[in-house]
Structures are given as structure tokens and as C-alpha cells.
Design goal:
disordered N terminus, mainly beta, Neuraminidase, 11% helix, four-stranded antiparallel β-sheet, six-stranded mixed β-sheet
């Protein structure tokens, strides 16, 4: 009898200890960044290279990244205001469809994750958690309820970025199994698995446009490497849209869904092409623009992010706007 009482007591004690351990684990805060700033660097500039930017839905404001901080700027030019900054590295901001939120990538938790904040940078919250993944080119669905993004793992077997969709309230996300057809010409890389980058949703919410290639990056690659495809969220089908000799990357869609803009390389420089999705006619939108890095392993995306540019006048405003960004931030 005494042995039974002792066994019951030990069982209860072990269960209580296990519950306390689980509680401690769940209460454990994020590790955050291990480094602290030791000095401050101040600078003023009116020129930025390889920045990702987006335009607010009302066409009045640009949000962009600069040296790991986020800024906003009137689209007609003026002083840029830093809205998110510090020791963490923030990048690739995108406005929500109503213009009230932004989504961006940040390592403030100690590793890259998706974050959502108010349009002024306040009330930031993590959308994803973890320390073994990377995220590239987040964007909103037109209803503002989901984020589409490319996600890759840390190991060699999980590195290839693939498309995922996350609800803005959180969760583990949904994999979009949009395996694009092989390009019509050129190798597009080696291997069977696909590398999928630069996702953007169509205005009607039915399609996700993205750039893809077969396999990993390698040395001395033959062109074309990347092409733009379209994944149908309703049917699950994927359609190859481009067949560009200089590759096709970083798609953007007009607000009426009728035009596709993509980056391509021509005569050793990168430019933007516009395709009418109904007639398939194409023309140059801008050439040259910031260089691409389609042959290398991505640190962000193949080319910097560009807004969807719902009107021609917005495109003109982007090319003429001048800015001055001033900042004082801890040295990283």
C-alpha cells in the first residue's frame, strides 16, 4: 500500500514539474538581436541604390528601405522620414490595399521573419516566428487578409524558396504548389525542384504571379534563367507567361490586371518591359534600371521591388521625385 502511495506521489510530482517546464518554455521571450550599438553614424543623402519601394494606394506616399531602415517620402519629393529603424535590419516594405499597414522583413527577433506594422511604423507585430527560415518579397492579397511570400529553409535541402501564403492574424501558412512548366528555351538552371521568387497577387485575387527557375544558382549559367508564371488559386494550375531571352523577373501587375511589368536583361543592362496580357504586345517601360543579380544566390530578390504603378502618371512621378533622407542610427 505504501508503495502505491509513493508511486502516485512521484507521478503527480513529475507531471507538475513537466507542466512547469512547459510553462517556462512558452513564456520564454524571443532571443532578439545579440548585438548592441556602440556608436552612432549620421548621414544625409539624395540617392539610393538597390532599394525596394512601394507606393501607397492613394498615390501620395512612397515607402522604401535604406541600409536596414524603412522610410516614407511624399511622391512629389521632399524630406524622407524614418518610420522603422535601429539595430535590426528591415527591408522590402509593402503597403496594404487600404494603405493603413505595411508588411516587411525584419531580423529584430534574432532571425528574418515577416512583420506587420501601421503605415507610420507603429505597433509592429511578428507574423511568423522561427530562426531557420528566410523570407523574400512579401506582398498583400487584394482583400488585405493574406500575405504571399517566398520562404526558404536554412539547410541545403530546404534552401530553394517556394511560395507560401499567411493569414494576417498568424498561423503556419499555406504552401502554394505552383510548379511552373519548364521554359521553352534555355536551361533555366539545373535540377528538378523550382526556385520561386517575387510573388504578387492579381487585383481580382485569383492569381499569384511569380518568377521561377529550375534548381539552384550555379557558375557560368546560360540564359535565360528565370521566367514569369501565373498560379491560379482557384484551379491550382500554373501557366508560363514569358519566354524572354534575358530572363523575366520580379513581376508587377497593373491595377486593372491587364498589364504585366517584369525585369529583363538586354545587352548587359537591366530594363523593365510591359506586356499586355490580352494582346501579348510588349514594349520597354524603362531602360536601363538598377542592375539585377539573377545569377547569384539571393540576399533579397532578383531585382529590387517596384510598385504596381496603376496609372502612367504614377510611373512618371516615380522617375521625377527627388528625396533627401537623413538618419542617425546605431552602427551595425
Amino acid at each position: 500500500m505504501n508503495h502505491l502511495v509513493l508511486a502516485a506521489f512521484l507521478s503527480l510530482f513529475c507531471c507538475a514539474a513537466f507542466a512547469q517546464d512547459e510553462e517556462k518554455k512558452s513564456d520564454k521571450p524571443d532571443e532578439g538581436l545579440p548585438l548592441q550599438g556602440t556608436e552612432t553614424i549620421e548621414f544625409t543623402t539624395d540617392e539610393v541604390t538597390w532599394m525596394s519601394l512601394d507606393v501607397s494606394p492613394d498615390g501620395s506616399t512612397i515607402v522604401f528601405d535604406l541600409l536596414g531602415d524603412l522610410y516614407t517620402l511624399p511622391i512629389m519629393g521632399g524630406e524622407a522620414e524614418r518610420i522603422v529603424g535601429g539595430m535590426s535590419f528591415e527591408s522590402q516594405p509593402r503597403f496594404s490595399p487600404d494603405g493603413e499597414k505595411i508588411v516587411f522583413v525584419s531580423d529584430r527577433s534574432g532571425a528574418d521573419n515577416l512583420w506587420i506594422a501601421d503605415a507610420d511604423g507603429e505597433n509592429a507585430k511578428a507574423l511568423t516566428k522561427g530562426r531557420d527560415s528566410s523570407y523574400f518579397a512579401p506582398d498583400w492579397t487584394p482583400d488585405g487578409k493574406y500575405i504571399v511570400v517566398s520562404k526558404s529553409g536554412a539547410s541545403a535541402s530546404t534552401w530553394l524558396p517556394t511560395l507560401r501564403m499567411y493569414h494576417v492574424d498568424g498561423g503556419s501558412g499555406l504552401a502554394l504548389s505552383g510548379q511552373a512548366p519548364a521554359p521553352a528555351f534555355g536551361p533555366g538552371g539545373g535540377g528538378g525542384s523550382q526556385n520561386q521568387m517575387g510573388a504578387v497577387a492579381s487585383p481580382d485575387g485569383r492569381y499569384v504571379y511569380f518568377a521561377s527557375r529550375n534548381g539552384r544558382n550555379s557558375y557560368n549559367e546560360m540564359f535565360p534563367i528565370w521566367q514569369v508564371s501565373r498560379y491560379d488559386l482557384k484551379t491550382g494550375d500554373t501557366q508560363l507567361l514569358t519566354n524572354a531571352q534575358g530572363s523575366a523577373m520580379r513581376p508587377a501587375i497593373s491595377s486593372d490586371g491587364k498589364h504585366l511589368v517584369y525585369a529583363t536583361r538586354f545587352e548587359a543592362q537591366t530594363g523593365l518591359r510591359v506586356r499586355n496580357l490580352e494582346t501579348h504586345e510588349e514594349r520597354w517601360l524603362a531602360y536601363p534600371v538598377t542592375r539585377d543579380e539573377q545569377e547569384s544566390k539571393p540576399a533579397a530578390t532578383r531585382t529590387p521591388a517596384t510598385p504596381s504603378c496603376p496609372t502612367a502618371s504614377r510611373s512618371s512621378s516615380l522617375s521625377t521625385a527627388r528625396s533627401r533622407a537623413s538618419t542617425s542610427s546605431p552602427a551595425r
